[in-house]
Amino acid sequence: MHKSVKDIIEKKKLGQKISVITAYDYTLASLCERTGIDILLVGDSAGMVMLGYENTVPVTMEQMIMFTEAVSRARQSSLVVADMPFMSYQASISDAIANSGRLVKAGADAVKLEGGKVVSKTISAIVETGIPVMGHIGFQPQTTALSQGYKVQGKTEETAVTLIEDAKALEEAGVFSIVLEMVTSEVAKIISESVSIPTIGIGSGRFCDGQVLVIHDMLGMYEKIKPKFVKQYLSLSEQITKAVTSYKSEVESGKFPAEENWFSMDRVELDRLIRKIGS
Fold it and tell me: Which residues are involved in binding Mg(2+) (predicted)?
């Protein structure tokens, strides 16, 4: 049995930190799953990391469904949460419900929406259908980047109050957890202490109830953007480049493939073949 939303909420009550990894494909999700990671988040950041977009805005429902299906096939014990892409829930509540359902059918256990009070009614409607929702406030890649650029959130009293109010509105709407992205540590601490549901930080300090990083970032595979909050546990981009360079060199020199890398006919069968084609 894999983890449930109740299991995630219970971890906060017990004072246990929640581990979240953003992954987009079966292979890496399988490796993450082996560690007992609490949540596999299928982020719309896949548009940038996997598809080469400049931001998350172009990502479609069809693409998110594909990535969600891949990650869910790897799931053994982790909870799978899938991002609702830009304009899959903003236009109408009926769209939001329908698209949430599509992600659940693709294998998600819950969906994630960006926004505070402005999406609270939409979240309530989705939750009422029986689909768990993870909230997301602070820096919101789908919209904040378009209007403000990549900026830390909650640096002033006014913006801090708005974030706190948004968090409480999301809790009232029924979310089971809230991602706090690029929120000042002080405000993240206040929010984490003022809501009963878990907060998941990304660039928001150590007082959140859990943390999330993109697997490609922490392994040093995606180099286009290197946020301050990312800790690189490996530098795979260098190792991968060296490996491919070695492969290219060995192909060109004839060193690869060697005898242990190919298959051979039985000598008797080979002799028969030579006699036949030579006759």
Answer: 44, 83, 114
Banded pLDDT at 226 (limits 50, 70, 90)? confident
Q: Nearest CA to 122 among 130, 113, 102, 195? A: 113
pLDDT reported for residue 232: 93
Residue with tokens 């509105």: 169
Burial class of 28 by CB neighbour count within 10 A (0 to 12, 13 to 18, 19+):
buried
- In our burial notation (b when 16+ CB lie closer than 10 A, e otherwise), range 203-219 reads bbbebbbbbbbbbbbbb
Binding-site entries: 44-45, 83, 112, 114
Q: What are the binding residues for 3-methyl-2-oxobutanoate?
A: 44-45, 83, 112
Tokens, residue 200: 């998941």
SS3 content of the chain, % helix, strand, coil (to 5): 45, 15, 40
Average pLDDT, the chain: 96
In angstroms, the CA 250 to CA 45 distance is 35
- CATH class for domain 5-234? alpha beta
- How is the chain split into domains, by residue range? 5-234, 239-277
Which of these is catalytic: 62, 158, 181, 186? 181
- Residue from 13, 8, 69 nearest 37 by CA: 8
Annotated binding site for Mg(2+): 44, 83, 114
Its pTM surpasses 0.85? yes
**39: helix, strand or coil:** strand
CA distance 258 to 57: 47
Structure confidence by residue, pLDDT tens digits, 114-159? 999 999 999 999 999 999 999 999 999 998 666 667 789 999 999 9
> Does 181 participate in catalysis according to the annotation?
yes
**How far is residue 37's CA from residue 20's CA, in Å, rounded to a whole number?**
6
